Amino acid sequence: MENSHISALSAKHAGLDARIKAESSRPMPDTTLVASLKKQKLRLKEEMAAQH
């Protein structure tokens, strides 16, 4: 059960990373959105670290 939770968190982390890259590569990226996505990504990373 715990392993599947970590896998789900990892998948969400990768999805956020892709969204950050996509938004950052736009000609005029939404910096507020990028900052929000980065905060979400950091929270997921911290949660994954706490699971180990």
UniProtKB/TrEMBL annotation:
It holds the Pfam family DUF465. This is YdcH family protein. The lineage of its organism: Bacteria, Pseudomonadati, Pseudomonadota, Alphaproteobacteria, Sphingomonadales.
